[in-house]
Amino acid sequence: AQSVAQPEDQVNVAEGNPLTVKCTYSVSGNPYLFWYVQYPNRGLQFLLKYITGDNLVKGSYGFEAEFNKSQTSFHLKKPSALVSDSALYFCAVRDSSGNTPLVFGKGTRLSVIA
Amino acid sequence: GAVVSQHPSRVICKSGTSVKIECRSLDFQATTMFWYRQFPKQSLMLMATSNEGSKATYEQGVEKDKFLINHASLTLSTLTVTSAHPEDSSFYICSARDPGRGQGEQYFGPGTRLTVT
């Protein structure tokens, strides 16, 4: 079975500081990993994904994430946070084989303070 | 490209009535669609997976007779909440997979806020 853990319910960071939102996963085969962002009463917006290749993945709005196979982690990072980055962030995983759906973590609320 | 729409975006209904939510893939054919439910301040919980032309596969604990899913065409799936109760109030999000793009990525609709009074 697939699972995702986002250990932090809330992350607070000052504007201009670097941010990290943590994610670890469990999957039986090779993982496909994703980060999505959700604004209030809105659907999910895709940020980035890791399928294969370079472990450092760059995505939308200056976000990036690093795939670490040994630690089964896929932490989301941004060098300099903006107030507009404040939102709910979800990490998701699926097995690379078959037609399995994405399984989501519980989400981490990011609050960037001016 | 890869746009998924949902209709309605918001619906209020009375207890005991049924509500239908539509999910459409606008610019691709989705052989597989997924329905998720999101409670306030919580994650997305997968309800069911539907493949075009076949019966949906429901996750454990989801009542198939209450949440009727139909995937009659490659661009449309519907979720009908039957005999709705206040505890069915939630944010419902559909997702469609485009088999011809990337690694079968999932694209998400904007969600439907259901309130049962």
**Portion of residues within helices of chain B:** under 10%
Find the structural class of chain A using helix and strand composition.
Answer: mainly beta
Estimate the strand proportion of chain B: over 45%
Order of helices and strands of chain A: EEEEEEEEEEEE
Assembly state: heterodimer
In short:
Chain A has 114 residues and is mainly β. Helices cover 0% and strands 53% of the residues of chain A. In chain A, strands 2, 5, 6, 10, 11 and 12 form a six-stranded mixed sheet that branches.
From the structure above, extract its key features:
heterodimer; A: 114 residues; mainly beta; six-stranded mixed β-sheet; 0% helix; 53% strand; globular; B: 117 residues; four-stranded antiparallel β-sheet
SSE order and pairing:
The complex is a heterodimer of chains A (114) and B (117).
Chain A: E1 3-5, E2 10-14, E3 19-21, E4 24-26, E5 31-38, E6 44-50, E7 56-58, E8 64-68, E9 73-78, E10 87-95, E11 103-104, E12 108-113
Parallel strand pairs in A: 2-12
Antiparallel strand pairs in A: 1-4, 3-9, 5-6, 5-10, 7-8, 8-9, 10-11, 10-12
Chain B: E1 4-7, E2 10-13, E3 19-25, E4 32-38, E5 44-51, E6 57-58, E7 67-73, E8 76-81, E9 90-97, E10 106-108, E11 112-116
Parallel strand pairs in B: 2-11
Antiparallel strand pairs in B: 1-3, 3-8, 4-5, 4-9, 5-6, 7-8, 9-10, 9-11
